[in-house]
Design a protein that fits this description.
The chain has ten helices and four strands, in the order αααββααααββααα. The chain is α+β, with helices and mostly antiparallel strands. The protein has a single domain, classed as Outer membrane efflux proteins (OEP). A four-stranded antiparallel β-sheet has the order 1-2-3-4, with no helix packed on it. β1 and β2 form a beta hairpin. α1 packs antiparallel against α4. The longest helix is centred in the middle third of the chain and has 67 residues.
Length: 438
């Protein structure tokens, strides 16, 4: 009696798991598509806001560099009080005078000629801003891949939990059938024990699948910002992918944000060489100073104006300027090597993603064939069971194989979708705008 009670409660619990997991995969009016999940996460992500702040900082770097083309003005206002004592020979009391006055000064300077240092710094800041935009795009790609992965992970884990629950139901029926056959002498005690062991194993697998689904849902909530509800199977994005491996590699070399950023790092390093070399040449500037002084008592006033130009010629600095130039040239060589290394790594990544996607598509074809074959086998075994050639044990095993084949097909579809997104990322085309999510 007590054993039957626990069996009923346990079965009800497993059915509850099944209902909960099915809610995640059934399409409905309020279903959340992967694009909607990406849009929500993208809008509310602190990481994406951080990238925007980095771009603002790059904008300020351009403004700071452009300030070098403008004149500088500095004003000073000072108040001074001085006291003078004169000691005369033969006099006991020294003569004392006190002066107080106000002085206003205005200094101006303007860079007339610096061999292009300021212009190169402006260009360097603009290159840096563009490179930062590329890095923001790279972060965007990584973030979208992360969102997509956890989205399909929840779908996969929900499907796996469903199949394990269905498998438990199959094992329950199998145990009942074994016990019934044992009662009439058509099965042995070993058959019954084996059926119970497989049912217990199914319960353990359900617990593991439920834990995996709970973990995926927790990660989903962490990354996207809310719990997963009524998720839909994502649509195929093959229309966004290149038609051949050669075109995929060409697209990566042209569009990948990491390569674009590294190319600009080379340009920026070359500008640094030009700036360092310009420091070896003369420079010219203009300056002006206007000042006014007035005594506190108004007894005296003075005004002056100075305008001039200055030519600075570097003569000897211990070789530091030449050393700095050589350092910048070394940095150019390093930037070019980094570009070469990264280009090879990205091309290898494209080839790997391409082959992974190809293998995943083949797996889907094989899974579909397995489903058709398993369905044909099940129909045949059912027909044979009606004629007494097969047992209910054989039918249940065949049903289990068909269910497993169907779930494997779902898992393989997830692998294809993820491989497509990863390939799109490896060629530098995975952006919110490209996916139409903003």
């Amino acid at each position: 009696m007590l054993g039957n009670f626990f069996r009923i409660k346990r079965h009800s619990l497993l059915v509850g798991f099944c209902v909960a997991s099915t809610i995640l995969t059934v399409s409905s009016v309020n279903a959340e598509t992967v694009n909607q999940a990406m849009a929500y996460a993208f809008k509310n992500s602190p990481q994406m806001r951080l990238e925007k702040e980095k771009l603002k900082l790059s904008d300020e770097s351009i403004i700071s560099a452009q300030a070098g083309l403008m004149p500088t003005l500095n004003g000073e206002l000072s108040f001074a009080r001085s006291q003078t004592k004169i000691f005369l020979s033969g006099s006991a009391n020294p003569a004392s005078t006190v002066q107080m006055g106000l002085t206003a000064t205005l200094n101006a300077s303007y860079n007339l000629w610096d061999n292009g240092i300021t212009e190169n710094r402006i260009e360097q800041a603009k290159i840096g801003r563009s490179a930062q935009q590329d890095m923001a795009t790279l972060s965007e790609q990584d973030f979208l891949i992360q969102v997509f992965t956890i989205y399909v992970d929840v779908l996969r884990d929900s499907a796996l939990l469903n199949v394990q629950i269905k498998n438990f139901n199959v094992m329950s029926e199998q145990q009942k059938a074994s016990e019934a056959r044992f009662q009439v002498g058509e099965a042995t005690a070993t058959d019954v024990a084996l059926a119970k062991a497989r049912k217990s194993s199914a319960i353990s697998t359900i617990a593991s699948s439920k834990a995996q689904l709970d973990m995926s849902r927790a990660v989903y909530e962490q990354i996207i910002g809310h719990k997963p509800t009524n998720l839909r199977q994502p649509k195929n994005i093959s229309r966004l992918l290149p038609k051949s491996l050669r075109s995929a590699i060409a697209s990566a070399e042209k569009r990948h944000p990491a390569l674009k950023s590294l190319k600009k790092s080379v340009l920026s390093a070359e500008k640094s060489v030009q700036i360092a070399e310009a420091g070896l040449l003369p420079s010219a500037s203009a300056f002006g100073t206007a000042s006014a002084q007035r005594a506190y008592d108004g007894s005296a006033a003075q005004a002056s104006l100075t305008i001039g130009a200055k030519l600075s010629v570097p003569i000897y600095n211990g070789g530091i300027k030449y050393s700095q130039t050589r350092q910048e040239k070394i940095k150019v060589a390093q930037a070019r090597l980094n570009l070469t290394i990264s280009r090879a790594r990205i091309v290898a990544g494209v080839k790997s993603r391409w082959n992974t996607l190809k293998a995943s598509k083949i797996r889907i074809t094989a899974d579909d064939a397995q489903i058709r074959a398993s369905r044909a086998v099940l129909n045949g075994i059912r027909a044979e069971a009606e004629e007494g050639v097969r047992t209910s044990f054989d039918v249940l095993n065949s049903e289990k194989e068909l269910l497993s084949a169907k779930v494997q097909a779902i898992v393989s579809k997830r692998a294809v979708l993820l491989s497509q997104m990863q390939l799109l990322s490896s060629i530098g085309s995975l952006t919110a705008t490209k996916l139409g999510i903003r």
